[in-house]
Amino acid sequence: MPRKTIPPIGLVLIVFAAAAQQGQTHRVNEAVLKNAGKSGGEWLTYGLTLGETRYSPLTQLNVSNVGRLGLAWSYDVGPGGGNQEATPLVFNGTIYGITNWSVVFAVDARTGKERWRWDPEVNQEAVFPKICCGVVNRGLAIYQNLIIAPIIDGRLEALDADTGKVVWESRVAYPRDNYTITMAPRIAKGNVIIGVAGGEYPVRGFFAAFDANTGHFEWKFYTVPGDPSKPFENPALAKAATTWSGEWWKYGGGAPVWDGMAYDPDADLLYVGTGNGGPWPEQLRQSKGKDNLFVCSILAVKPETGELKWYYQPVPGDSWDYDSVQQLVLADLTIKGRPRKVIMQAGKDGFYYVLDRITGKFISGQPFTTVTWAKGLDELTGRPIINPEAHYGSATVTLSPASSGAHNWSPMSFNPMTGLAYIPVSAGTTQDYTVEPDFVYKPGSKNLGILRGPAPGDTRITLPAIGPAPPPPQQRGILLAWDPVKQKERWHAIGGASMGGGTVSTASNLVFQVIPDGRLVAYRADTGEKLLDIKTGLRGGMGPPITYSIDGKQYLSLMGGSGPFKPAIGTNFGPGPNPSLPKLLTYALDGSKP
Hints:
The protein contains four helices and 40 strands. By secondary structure, the protein is mainly β. The protein folds into three domains: 27-177 and 549-594, Thrombin, subunit H (Beta Barrel); 185-325, Beta Barrel (Thrombin, subunit H); 334-516, no CATH class. The protein has a five-stranded mixed beta sheet with strand order 1-34-35-36-37, with no helix packed on it. A four-stranded antiparallel beta sheet has the order 2-40-39-38, with no helix packed on it. The protein has a four-stranded antiparallel beta sheet with strand order 3-4-5-6, with no helix packed on it. The radius of gyration is 24 Å and the shape is globular.
Protein backbone atom coordinates (compact mmCIF):
# COMPACT_ATOMS: atom_id res chain seq x y z
CA MET A 1 0.00 0.00 0.00
CA PRO A 2 1.27 3.48 -0.76
CA ARG A 3 2.36 5.48 2.25
CA LYS A 4 0.07 8.35 3.19
CA THR A 5 1.55 11.79 2.97
CA ILE A 6 1.04 13.96 6.04
CA PRO A 7 0.88 17.66 5.25
CA PRO A 8 3.69 19.64 6.92
CA ILE A 9 1.29 21.53 9.19
CA GLY A 10 -0.30 18.25 10.33
CA LEU A 11 3.11 16.81 11.05
CA VAL A 12 3.98 19.87 13.11
CA LEU A 13 0.78 19.56 15.11
CA ILE A 14 1.42 15.87 15.79
CA VAL A 15 4.97 16.58 16.88
CA PHE A 16 3.84 19.38 19.20
CA ALA A 17 1.04 17.23 20.60
CA ALA A 18 3.45 14.36 21.23
CA ALA A 19 5.94 16.71 22.81
CA ALA A 20 3.27 18.25 25.02
CA GLN A 21 2.06 14.81 26.06
CA GLN A 22 5.59 13.63 26.76
CA GLY A 23 6.37 16.82 28.66
CA GLN A 24 3.30 16.36 30.82
CA THR A 25 3.97 12.68 31.41
CA HIS A 26 7.54 13.27 32.56
CA ARG A 27 7.03 16.61 34.23
CA VAL A 28 7.05 15.62 37.89
CA ASN A 29 10.32 13.76 38.00
CA GLU A 30 13.10 13.76 40.59
CA ALA A 31 14.49 17.12 39.44
CA VAL A 32 11.09 18.80 39.60
CA LEU A 33 10.41 17.43 43.07
CA LYS A 34 13.85 18.55 44.27
CA ASN A 35 12.96 22.10 43.25
CA ALA A 36 9.35 21.92 44.43
CA GLY A 37 8.33 25.06 46.24
CA LYS A 38 10.97 27.36 44.74
CA SER A 39 8.51 29.10 42.42
CA GLY A 40 5.42 28.64 44.59
CA GLY A 41 3.13 28.23 41.59
CA GLU A 42 2.25 24.61 42.30
CA TRP A 43 2.05 22.47 45.44
CA LEU A 44 3.52 19.14 44.33
CA THR A 45 4.26 17.30 47.56
CA TYR A 46 2.76 17.04 51.02
CA GLY A 47 5.02 19.61 52.71
CA LEU A 48 5.43 21.78 49.56
CA THR A 49 9.18 21.04 49.65
CA LEU A 50 10.89 17.68 50.14
CA GLY A 51 12.14 19.15 53.42
CA GLU A 52 8.48 19.63 54.50
CA THR A 53 8.90 23.35 55.33
CA ARG A 54 5.47 24.49 54.09
CA TYR A 55 7.14 27.80 53.22
CA SER A 56 5.96 29.51 50.04
CA PRO A 57 7.93 32.20 48.15
CA LEU A 58 4.67 33.80 46.94
CA THR A 59 4.22 37.45 47.90
CA GLN A 60 1.03 38.71 46.22
CA LEU A 61 -0.78 38.20 49.51
CA ASN A 62 1.04 40.40 52.01
CA VAL A 63 0.62 42.20 55.32
CA SER A 64 -0.95 45.24 53.67
CA ASN A 65 -3.66 43.48 51.64
CA VAL A 66 -4.40 40.14 53.31
CA GLY A 67 -7.43 41.71 54.96
CA ARG A 68 -9.06 41.76 51.50
CA LEU A 69 -8.98 37.97 51.28
CA GLY A 70 -12.37 36.54 50.34
CA LEU A 71 -13.87 33.29 49.09
CA ALA A 72 -13.23 32.75 45.38
CA TRP A 73 -15.00 29.39 45.10
CA SER A 74 -15.97 26.28 47.03
CA TYR A 75 -16.37 22.60 46.16
CA ASP A 76 -18.39 19.97 48.02
CA VAL A 77 -15.95 17.11 48.53
CA GLY A 78 -18.68 14.57 49.27
CA PRO A 79 -20.01 12.54 52.20
CA GLY A 80 -18.10 12.78 55.44
CA GLY A 81 -17.50 10.40 58.30
CA GLY A 82 -14.32 11.93 59.69
CA ASN A 83 -12.16 15.02 59.77
CA GLN A 84 -10.52 16.53 56.71
CA GLU A 85 -6.80 16.10 57.43
CA ALA A 86 -5.50 16.02 53.86
CA THR A 87 -3.16 18.52 52.23
CA PRO A 88 -4.43 19.17 48.68
CA LEU A 89 -1.89 19.16 45.82
CA VAL A 90 -1.78 21.52 42.82
CA PHE A 91 -0.47 20.34 39.44
CA ASN A 92 -1.15 21.54 35.89
CA GLY A 93 -3.89 23.92 36.94
CA THR A 94 -5.73 21.25 38.91
CA ILE A 95 -6.24 20.72 42.63
CA TYR A 96 -6.13 17.08 43.68
CA GLY A 97 -7.61 16.10 47.02
CA ILE A 98 -8.58 13.06 49.03
CA THR A 99 -11.42 12.89 51.52
CA ASN A 100 -13.02 10.37 53.86
CA TRP A 101 -12.97 6.73 52.82
CA SER A 102 -10.09 7.63 50.46
CA VAL A 103 -12.23 9.18 47.74
CA VAL A 104 -9.98 11.13 45.33
CA PHE A 105 -11.11 14.17 43.34
CA ALA A 106 -9.68 16.63 40.83
CA VAL A 107 -11.04 20.16 40.33
CA ASP A 108 -10.05 23.17 38.27
CA ALA A 109 -7.75 25.27 40.47
CA ARG A 110 -9.18 28.51 39.05
CA THR A 111 -12.89 27.76 39.40
CA GLY A 112 -13.43 24.63 41.49
CA LYS A 113 -15.22 22.84 38.64
CA GLU A 114 -14.91 19.08 39.04
CA ARG A 115 -12.74 17.32 36.45
CA TRP A 116 -13.03 13.79 37.78
CA ARG A 117 -13.77 11.81 40.92
CA TRP A 118 -12.73 8.30 41.91
CA ASP A 119 -14.12 6.17 44.73
CA PRO A 120 -12.08 3.09 45.77
CA GLU A 121 -15.29 1.59 47.19
CA VAL A 122 -13.85 0.58 50.55
CA ASN A 123 -15.87 -2.05 52.39
CA GLN A 124 -16.73 0.42 55.13
CA GLU A 125 -18.52 -1.93 57.50
CA ALA A 126 -15.64 -4.41 57.45
CA VAL A 127 -12.83 -1.83 57.67
CA PHE A 128 -14.32 0.59 60.18
CA PRO A 129 -13.74 -1.63 63.27
CA LYS A 130 -10.03 -1.82 62.38
CA ILE A 131 -9.51 1.95 62.16
CA CYS A 132 -7.70 3.23 65.22
CA CYS A 133 -8.30 6.94 65.23
CA GLY A 134 -10.83 8.21 62.72
CA VAL A 135 -11.77 7.80 59.06
CA VAL A 136 -9.10 10.21 57.83
CA ASN A 137 -6.48 10.55 55.13
CA ARG A 138 -3.62 13.08 55.07
CA GLY A 139 -2.91 13.36 51.38
CA LEU A 140 -1.63 12.21 48.01
CA ALA A 141 1.60 12.11 46.02
CA ILE A 142 2.34 13.06 42.41
CA TYR A 143 4.92 11.42 40.16
CA GLN A 144 5.17 11.72 36.38
CA ASN A 145 1.49 12.04 35.41
CA LEU A 146 0.24 9.84 38.24
CA ILE A 147 -1.76 10.72 41.33
CA ILE A 148 -0.78 8.18 43.97
CA ALA A 149 -3.49 7.60 46.54
CA PRO A 150 -3.27 5.71 49.85
CA ILE A 151 -6.47 3.76 50.55
CA ILE A 152 -7.49 3.31 54.17
CA ASP A 153 -8.02 -0.43 53.63
CA GLY A 154 -4.32 -0.99 52.82
CA ARG A 155 -4.22 -0.49 49.04
CA LEU A 156 -1.98 1.92 47.13
CA GLU A 157 -3.44 3.21 43.85
CA ALA A 158 -1.91 5.17 40.97
CA LEU A 159 -4.44 7.18 38.98
CA ASP A 160 -3.99 8.96 35.67
CA ALA A 161 -3.84 12.66 36.56
CA ASP A 162 -5.93 13.63 33.52
CA THR A 163 -8.71 11.07 33.77
CA GLY A 164 -8.66 9.53 37.25
CA LYS A 165 -8.46 6.02 35.80
CA VAL A 166 -6.44 3.41 37.68
CA VAL A 167 -2.98 2.77 36.19
CA TRP A 168 -1.69 0.36 38.83
CA GLU A 169 -2.67 -1.03 42.23
CA SER A 170 -0.50 -2.54 44.97
CA ARG A 171 -1.32 -4.08 48.32
CA VAL A 172 0.58 -2.57 51.27
CA ALA A 173 -1.30 -4.26 54.14
CA TYR A 174 -4.60 -5.86 55.09
CA PRO A 175 -7.25 -4.70 57.59
CA ARG A 176 -7.66 -8.29 58.75
CA ASP A 177 -4.08 -7.94 60.09
CA ASN A 178 -5.19 -4.79 61.95
CA TYR A 179 -3.42 -2.36 59.60
CA THR A 180 -4.87 0.72 57.94
CA ILE A 181 -3.28 3.58 55.97
CA THR A 182 -3.93 7.23 56.85
CA MET A 183 -0.69 9.01 55.88
CA ALA A 184 0.30 10.80 52.69
CA PRO A 185 2.80 8.87 50.55
CA ARG A 186 6.17 10.43 49.71
CA ILE A 187 8.38 10.08 46.63
CA ALA A 188 12.13 9.41 46.83
CA LYS A 189 14.44 7.99 44.15
CA GLY A 190 11.49 6.93 42.01
CA ASN A 191 9.90 5.02 44.87
CA VAL A 192 6.63 5.65 46.65
CA ILE A 193 7.20 5.38 50.41
CA ILE A 194 4.20 4.57 52.57
CA GLY A 195 3.68 3.48 56.18
CA VAL A 196 0.88 1.87 58.17
CA ALA A 197 -1.30 2.88 61.13
CA GLY A 198 -2.67 0.70 63.90
CA GLY A 199 -0.40 0.95 66.96
CA GLU A 200 -3.25 0.43 69.43
CA TYR A 201 -3.84 -2.96 67.81
CA PRO A 202 -1.38 -5.88 68.00
CA VAL A 203 0.66 -4.84 64.95
CA ARG A 204 4.29 -4.80 63.97
CA GLY A 205 4.90 -1.41 62.42
CA PHE A 206 6.58 -0.92 59.05
CA PHE A 207 7.01 1.33 56.05
CA ALA A 208 7.55 0.10 52.52
CA ALA A 209 8.65 1.25 49.06
CA PHE A 210 6.97 0.64 45.70
CA ASP A 211 8.15 1.62 42.24
CA ALA A 212 6.27 4.82 41.43
CA ASN A 213 5.87 3.95 37.73
CA THR A 214 4.71 0.37 38.09
CA GLY A 215 3.66 -0.24 41.70
CA HIS A 216 6.20 -3.05 41.98
CA PHE A 217 7.18 -3.81 45.59
CA GLU A 218 10.78 -2.81 46.30
CA TRP A 219 11.51 -3.17 50.02
CA LYS A 220 10.02 -3.09 53.53
CA PHE A 221 11.49 -1.85 56.80
CA TYR A 222 9.92 -3.25 59.98
CA THR A 223 10.18 -0.82 62.86
CA VAL A 224 10.31 -3.47 65.60
CA PRO A 225 12.03 -6.86 65.51
CA GLY A 226 10.01 -10.01 65.01
CA ASP A 227 10.23 -13.51 66.45
CA PRO A 228 13.94 -14.06 67.28
CA SER A 229 13.64 -17.77 66.49
CA LYS A 230 13.41 -16.70 62.83
CA PRO A 231 16.01 -14.80 60.81
CA PHE A 232 15.85 -11.03 61.21
CA GLU A 233 15.05 -9.11 58.05
CA ASN A 234 18.17 -6.93 58.35
CA PRO A 235 21.13 -6.29 60.72
CA ALA A 236 19.41 -3.24 62.23
CA LEU A 237 16.60 -5.42 63.55
CA ALA A 238 19.04 -7.95 64.99
CA LYS A 239 20.57 -5.08 66.96
CA ALA A 240 17.15 -3.75 67.92
CA ALA A 241 16.16 -7.16 69.33
CA THR A 242 18.72 -6.71 72.13
CA THR A 243 16.60 -3.81 73.40
CA TRP A 244 13.54 -6.02 73.94
CA SER A 245 12.88 -8.93 76.31
CA GLY A 246 10.31 -11.62 76.95
CA GLU A 247 7.98 -12.59 74.11
CA TRP A 248 7.27 -9.09 72.83
CA TRP A 249 6.61 -10.22 69.26
CA LYS A 250 3.42 -11.98 70.34
CA TYR A 251 1.97 -8.54 71.17
CA GLY A 252 3.11 -6.92 67.93
CA GLY A 253 5.33 -4.25 69.45
CA GLY A 254 3.76 -1.25 67.73
CA ALA A 255 5.85 1.60 66.24
CA PRO A 256 3.53 2.24 63.28
CA VAL A 257 4.45 4.86 60.67
CA TRP A 258 1.37 7.02 60.16
CA ASP A 259 2.64 10.53 59.45
CA GLY A 260 6.04 12.28 59.44
CA MET A 261 8.55 11.80 56.61
CA ALA A 262 11.02 14.05 54.78
CA TYR A 263 13.70 13.55 52.13
CA ASP A 264 17.09 15.16 51.50
CA PRO A 265 18.04 14.38 47.86
CA ASP A 266 21.57 15.74 48.31
CA ALA A 267 22.28 13.46 51.25
CA ASP A 268 20.05 10.79 49.68
CA LEU A 269 18.44 10.12 53.04
CA LEU A 270 14.78 9.49 53.75
CA TYR A 271 13.69 10.42 57.28
CA VAL A 272 10.84 8.54 58.95
CA GLY A 273 9.14 8.99 62.32
CA THR A 274 7.74 5.99 64.18
CA GLY A 275 4.86 5.63 66.61
CA ASN A 276 4.09 4.32 70.08
CA GLY A 277 4.86 0.94 71.55
CA GLY A 278 2.05 -1.54 72.00
CA PRO A 279 0.60 -2.23 74.49
CA TRP A 280 1.33 1.16 76.04
CA PRO A 281 2.99 0.18 79.37
CA GLU A 282 6.48 -1.21 78.82
CA GLN A 283 5.95 -3.95 81.42
CA LEU A 284 3.02 -5.34 79.44
CA ARG A 285 5.38 -5.64 76.46
CA GLN A 286 7.61 -7.68 78.83
CA SER A 287 10.35 -5.10 78.27
CA LYS A 288 10.45 -3.01 81.41
CA GLY A 289 13.55 -0.82 81.47
CA LYS A 290 14.40 -1.56 77.84
CA ASP A 291 14.64 0.99 75.02
CA ASN A 292 12.44 -1.04 72.64
CA LEU A 293 13.94 0.08 69.34
CA PHE A 294 12.57 1.44 67.09
CA VAL A 295 9.44 2.69 68.87
CA CYS A 296 9.11 6.50 69.06
CA SER A 297 12.17 7.06 66.89
CA ILE A 298 13.44 9.08 63.94
CA LEU A 299 15.09 6.86 61.31
CA ALA A 300 17.28 7.82 58.36
CA VAL A 301 17.33 5.23 55.56
CA LYS A 302 18.48 4.97 51.95
CA PRO A 303 15.36 5.32 49.80
CA GLU A 304 16.50 2.81 47.17
CA THR A 305 17.16 -0.03 49.59
CA GLY A 306 15.71 0.80 53.02
CA GLU A 307 19.16 0.45 54.60
CA LEU A 308 19.29 2.17 58.00
CA LYS A 309 22.01 4.84 58.25
CA TRP A 310 21.21 6.33 61.66
CA TYR A 311 18.48 6.63 64.25
CA TYR A 312 17.57 8.83 67.19
CA GLN A 313 15.04 7.79 69.82
CA PRO A 314 13.30 10.69 71.58
CA VAL A 315 11.27 8.42 73.89
CA PRO A 316 13.09 5.18 74.82
CA GLY A 317 10.76 2.47 76.11
CA ASP A 318 7.69 4.61 75.42
CA SER A 319 4.86 3.97 77.87
CA TRP A 320 2.86 7.16 77.23
CA ASP A 321 1.79 7.02 73.57
CA TYR A 322 4.35 9.73 72.72
CA ASP A 323 4.62 8.87 69.04
CA SER A 324 7.54 10.49 67.20
CA VAL A 325 5.67 10.69 63.89
CA GLN A 326 5.13 14.45 63.97
CA GLN A 327 6.24 16.46 60.97
CA LEU A 328 9.96 16.29 60.19
CA VAL A 329 11.34 19.57 58.84
CA LEU A 330 14.70 20.03 57.11
CA ALA A 331 16.52 23.36 57.29
CA ASP A 332 19.97 24.92 57.11
CA LEU A 333 20.68 26.86 60.30
CA THR A 334 23.64 28.69 61.79
CA ILE A 335 24.08 27.41 65.33
CA LYS A 336 26.87 28.75 67.53
CA GLY A 337 28.45 30.34 64.47
CA ARG A 338 28.51 27.09 62.53
CA PRO A 339 26.31 26.21 59.54
CA ARG A 340 24.35 23.05 60.23
CA LYS A 341 22.11 20.88 58.06
CA VAL A 342 19.39 19.98 60.52
CA ILE A 343 16.21 17.99 60.89
CA MET A 344 13.67 19.33 63.38
CA GLN A 345 10.61 17.99 65.13
CA ALA A 346 8.14 19.53 67.58
CA GLY A 347 7.37 16.32 69.42
CA LYS A 348 4.18 14.96 70.83
CA ASP A 349 6.21 14.62 74.05
CA GLY A 350 6.60 18.41 74.41
CA PHE A 351 10.25 18.82 73.34
CA TYR A 352 11.50 20.65 70.24
CA TYR A 353 14.34 18.59 68.75
CA VAL A 354 17.13 19.78 66.46
CA LEU A 355 19.41 17.06 65.03
CA ASP A 356 22.19 16.94 62.47
CA ARG A 357 20.37 15.35 59.54
CA ILE A 358 23.53 13.86 58.01
CA THR A 359 24.77 12.05 61.13
CA GLY A 360 21.76 11.96 63.46
CA LYS A 361 23.79 13.66 66.18
CA PHE A 362 21.75 15.54 68.75
CA ILE A 363 22.24 19.31 68.61
CA SER A 364 19.65 20.71 71.01
CA GLY A 365 16.24 20.19 72.54
CA GLN A 366 14.03 22.18 74.89
CA PRO A 367 10.43 21.92 76.11
CA PHE A 368 8.04 24.17 74.18
CA THR A 369 5.20 23.39 76.61
CA THR A 370 4.76 22.03 80.12
CA VAL A 371 6.58 18.70 80.54
CA THR A 372 6.54 16.43 83.61
CA TRP A 373 7.39 12.98 82.20
CA ALA A 374 11.06 13.99 81.90
CA LYS A 375 13.41 16.34 83.76
CA GLY A 376 15.12 17.39 80.53
CA LEU A 377 17.41 16.05 77.83
CA ASP A 378 21.05 15.03 78.18
CA GLU A 379 23.03 17.86 76.55
CA LEU A 380 25.41 15.49 74.76
CA THR A 381 23.20 12.61 73.68
CA GLY A 382 19.71 14.07 73.72
CA ARG A 383 18.50 11.11 75.74
CA PRO A 384 15.58 12.09 77.99
CA ILE A 385 16.16 12.18 81.74
CA ILE A 386 12.92 10.42 82.63
CA ASN A 387 11.29 11.02 85.98
CA PRO A 388 11.35 7.59 87.69
CA GLU A 389 7.76 8.07 88.89
CA ALA A 390 6.64 8.50 85.27
CA HIS A 391 7.04 4.72 84.90
CA TYR A 392 3.58 4.14 86.27
CA GLY A 393 2.18 0.92 87.66
CA SER A 394 -0.82 0.26 89.89
CA ALA A 395 -0.71 3.82 91.24
CA THR A 396 -2.04 6.63 89.06
CA VAL A 397 0.47 9.16 87.75
CA THR A 398 -0.63 12.45 86.17
CA LEU A 399 1.73 13.51 83.39
CA SER A 400 2.17 16.30 80.87
CA PRO A 401 1.70 16.40 77.96
CA ALA A 402 -1.34 14.17 77.48
CA SER A 403 -1.13 11.32 75.00
CA SER A 404 -2.92 13.47 72.42
CA GLY A 405 0.32 15.40 72.28
CA ALA A 406 1.70 18.90 72.69
CA HIS A 407 2.01 18.78 68.88
CA ASN A 408 0.30 16.05 66.92
CA TRP A 409 -0.42 15.68 63.18
CA SER A 410 -1.35 19.33 62.49
CA PRO A 411 1.47 20.54 60.22
CA MET A 412 3.79 23.28 61.37
CA SER A 413 5.72 25.49 58.96
CA PHE A 414 9.24 26.94 58.98
CA ASN A 415 10.05 30.35 57.52
CA PRO A 416 13.77 30.78 56.71
CA MET A 417 13.35 34.58 56.54
CA THR A 418 12.09 34.92 60.11
CA GLY A 419 13.97 31.82 61.30
CA LEU A 420 10.83 30.68 63.13
CA ALA A 421 8.76 27.52 63.20
CA TYR A 422 4.98 27.99 63.56
CA ILE A 423 3.57 25.14 65.60
CA PRO A 424 -0.07 24.30 66.43
CA VAL A 425 0.18 23.41 70.12
CA SER A 426 -2.01 22.00 72.86
CA ALA A 427 -0.31 23.59 75.86
CA GLY A 428 -0.40 22.39 79.45
CA THR A 429 -2.44 19.23 78.86
CA THR A 430 -2.38 16.38 81.38
CA GLN A 431 -3.37 12.71 81.49
CA ASP A 432 -3.69 10.04 84.15
CA TYR A 433 -1.75 6.81 83.57
CA THR A 434 -2.38 3.56 85.44
CA VAL A 435 -1.54 0.04 84.30
CA GLU A 436 -4.68 -2.01 83.75
CA PRO A 437 -4.52 -4.41 86.73
CA ASP A 438 -6.19 -7.39 85.07
CA PHE A 439 -4.84 -6.94 81.58
CA VAL A 440 -5.47 -9.86 79.25
CA TYR A 441 -4.07 -9.73 75.74
CA LYS A 442 -6.84 -9.76 73.13
CA PRO A 443 -5.76 -10.88 69.64
CA GLY A 444 -7.15 -8.66 66.92
CA SER A 445 -8.40 -6.02 69.35
CA LYS A 446 -7.10 -2.83 70.90
CA ASN A 447 -4.65 -3.55 73.71
CA LEU A 448 -3.77 -0.24 75.37
CA GLY A 449 -3.21 -1.80 78.80
CA ILE A 450 -4.09 1.35 80.76
CA LEU A 451 -7.07 2.48 82.80
CA ARG A 452 -9.08 5.44 81.62
CA GLY A 453 -8.95 7.82 84.58
CA PRO A 454 -7.43 7.16 88.01
CA ALA A 455 -7.41 3.80 89.74
CA PRO A 456 -10.41 3.32 92.06
CA GLY A 457 -9.72 4.97 95.41
CA ASP A 458 -6.25 6.00 94.28
CA THR A 459 -4.55 9.35 94.76
CA ARG A 460 -2.90 10.91 91.74
CA ILE A 461 0.85 11.36 91.79
CA THR A 462 1.97 14.61 90.17
CA LEU A 463 5.52 15.42 89.16
CA PRO A 464 7.56 18.64 88.97
CA ALA A 465 7.31 20.48 85.65
CA ILE A 466 9.77 22.02 83.26
CA GLY A 467 9.08 24.33 80.34
CA PRO A 468 6.46 27.07 80.06
CA ALA A 469 3.81 27.20 82.76
CA PRO A 470 0.40 25.89 81.66
CA PRO A 471 -1.96 28.62 80.44
CA PRO A 472 -5.58 28.90 81.62
CA PRO A 473 -7.70 25.98 80.34
CA GLN A 474 -9.58 28.17 77.83
CA GLN A 475 -6.26 29.29 76.27
CA ARG A 476 -4.49 25.97 75.84
CA GLY A 477 -4.88 25.80 72.08
CA ILE A 478 -2.22 28.14 70.66
CA LEU A 479 -0.11 28.95 67.65
CA LEU A 480 3.50 29.06 68.82
CA ALA A 481 6.29 30.88 66.96
CA TRP A 482 9.46 29.07 68.04
CA ASP A 483 13.10 29.99 67.44
CA PRO A 484 14.91 26.66 66.84
CA VAL A 485 18.39 28.21 67.13
CA LYS A 486 17.80 29.85 70.51
CA GLN A 487 15.25 27.18 71.48
CA LYS A 488 12.80 29.72 72.83
CA GLU A 489 9.40 31.22 72.11
CA ARG A 490 9.24 34.38 70.00
CA TRP A 491 5.46 34.88 70.26
CA HIS A 492 2.22 32.95 70.56
CA ALA A 493 -1.42 33.54 69.71
CA ILE A 494 -4.54 31.99 71.22
CA GLY A 495 -6.35 29.58 68.90
CA GLY A 496 -5.67 26.19 67.40
CA ALA A 497 -4.46 22.94 68.89
CA SER A 498 -2.19 20.00 68.21
CA MET A 499 -4.85 18.23 66.14
CA GLY A 500 -6.89 19.98 63.47
CA GLY A 501 -5.79 22.62 60.98
CA GLY A 502 -2.18 23.57 60.51
CA THR A 503 -0.06 26.37 59.08
CA VAL A 504 1.68 27.68 55.99
CA SER A 505 4.14 30.59 55.95
CA THR A 506 5.12 32.87 53.07
CA ALA A 507 7.94 35.14 51.93
CA SER A 508 5.67 38.17 52.45
CA ASN A 509 5.93 37.85 56.24
CA LEU A 510 2.64 36.01 56.65
CA VAL A 511 1.70 32.86 58.49
CA PHE A 512 -1.74 31.39 57.86
CA GLN A 513 -3.38 29.07 60.37
CA VAL A 514 -6.51 26.97 60.10
CA ILE A 515 -8.17 26.57 63.49
CA PRO A 516 -10.30 23.52 64.42
CA ASP A 517 -13.35 25.69 65.17
CA GLY A 518 -13.57 26.54 61.46
CA ARG A 519 -11.58 29.78 61.25
CA LEU A 520 -8.84 30.89 58.85
CA VAL A 521 -6.43 33.33 60.53
CA ALA A 522 -3.40 35.25 59.26
CA TYR A 523 -0.62 36.82 61.34
CA ARG A 524 2.52 38.82 60.76
CA ALA A 525 5.12 36.08 60.81
CA ASP A 526 7.70 38.16 62.68
CA THR A 527 5.56 39.65 65.46
CA GLY A 528 2.32 37.66 65.66
CA GLU A 529 0.07 40.64 64.94
CA LYS A 530 -3.30 39.29 63.79
CA LEU A 531 -4.23 40.56 60.32
CA LEU A 532 -7.17 38.37 59.32
CA ASP A 533 -9.81 36.20 60.98
CA ILE A 534 -12.36 34.55 58.67
CA LYS A 535 -15.19 32.31 59.82
CA THR A 536 -15.35 29.74 57.05
CA GLY A 537 -18.77 28.43 58.04
CA LEU A 538 -17.40 24.92 58.48
CA ARG A 539 -17.88 23.26 61.84
CA GLY A 540 -14.66 21.49 62.65
CA GLY A 541 -12.79 18.74 60.85
CA MET A 542 -10.32 21.29 59.49
CA GLY A 543 -7.29 20.43 57.36
CA PRO A 544 -4.08 22.39 56.66
CA PRO A 545 -3.93 25.33 54.22
CA ILE A 546 -1.95 25.54 50.99
CA THR A 547 -1.18 28.46 48.68
CA TYR A 548 -0.53 28.49 44.93
CA SER A 549 -0.52 30.84 41.94
CA ILE A 550 -2.14 30.61 38.49
CA ASP A 551 -2.18 33.32 35.81
CA GLY A 552 -0.47 35.72 38.19
CA LYS A 553 -3.11 35.30 40.91
CA GLN A 554 -2.34 33.84 44.34
CA TYR A 555 -4.90 31.55 45.99
CA LEU A 556 -5.19 29.96 49.43
CA SER A 557 -7.07 26.65 49.78
CA LEU A 558 -8.12 24.40 52.64
CA MET A 559 -10.44 21.49 53.33
CA GLY A 560 -12.79 21.24 56.27
CA GLY A 561 -15.95 19.73 57.69
CA SER A 562 -16.64 16.21 58.91
CA GLY A 563 -20.21 15.28 58.13
CA PRO A 564 -22.09 12.11 59.07
CA PHE A 565 -21.22 8.54 58.29
CA LYS A 566 -23.37 6.65 55.88
CA PRO A 567 -26.34 5.14 57.75
CA ALA A 568 -24.92 1.65 57.35
CA ILE A 569 -22.06 2.47 59.71
CA GLY A 570 -24.33 3.70 62.48
CA THR A 571 -21.71 5.97 64.03
CA ASN A 572 -21.17 9.71 63.79
CA PHE A 573 -17.92 11.54 64.49
CA GLY A 574 -19.50 14.82 63.36
CA PRO A 575 -19.66 17.78 65.80
CA GLY A 576 -23.35 17.87 66.73
CA PRO A 577 -26.59 16.73 65.13
CA ASN A 578 -26.12 18.72 61.91
CA PRO A 579 -22.39 18.63 61.15
CA SER A 580 -21.15 20.69 58.27
CA LEU A 581 -20.67 18.79 55.06
CA PRO A 582 -17.02 18.67 53.96
CA LYS A 583 -15.84 21.31 51.50
CA LEU A 584 -12.76 22.54 49.70
CA LEU A 585 -12.61 26.33 50.10
CA THR A 586 -10.38 28.59 47.99
CA TYR A 587 -9.68 32.24 48.79
CA ALA A 588 -8.15 35.11 46.81
CA LEU A 589 -7.89 38.89 47.02
CA ASP A 590 -11.27 40.56 46.67
CA GLY A 591 -13.13 37.26 46.64
CA SER A 592 -16.90 37.46 46.47
CA LYS A 593 -17.44 36.55 50.11
CA PRO A 594 -15.62 37.60 53.32
